[in-house]
Model the fold of this input.
Amino acid sequence: MFQAKIFTLYPDFFPGILKKGIYGRAMEKSLWSLDVINLRDYAEDKHKTVDDTPYGGGEGMVIKPDIVAKAIDQNLNNDEKIIYLTPKGKSFNQNRAKKFLKDKKINIICGHFEGIDQRVIETRGIEEISIGDFILSGGETAAYVILDSILRLVPGVLGNENSCKDESFENGLLEHPQYTKPQIWEKIAVPEVLLSGDHSKIKNWRLSQSEAITRLRRPDLWQKYKK
Done:
């Protein structure tokens, strides 16, 4: 079973989304589990204060280290990997998704405001991860992206186990175009090769399409693929 724990200020964001569709059915089959920890539960004052102004000045607020540390220490073992979602983190990609899957569990801290105190990142050995070069209002949507990319790799989650093997990034290339019925739509026909029944020709066509798309749209991936 793959286990996920999310540390967040907005716990209601997760269960409703992830307990539906294929992931909901997979959860019912005990293929994965989700535990959502509300960081506000670890604040000791009556107002459940989790943030404060940053030393040195600046705009925004910072989540306090004692809040995050207490939530971690009371819910995780010392050797468990923890990631914190931040634009300054290492880039998340398909290979990282596979790596997290092999770990059998993932623990994600969702940042807010200007982030979390650097000291808790260092003392708890937290790995910083980014899903892209842009800014979000909070880490919850980024956490969903990461969970989505990992859970679809869990054996038994997708109806067709081969679905993951023929997608973008699986062979270093972007995916080829897809077509379905009707055969002719708005005077545009499906490529003849896909109707030929010749699996070798179809495979070669799809590869050539993937290569062309990758070369045009993602020169960085194309250079890696050529090597």
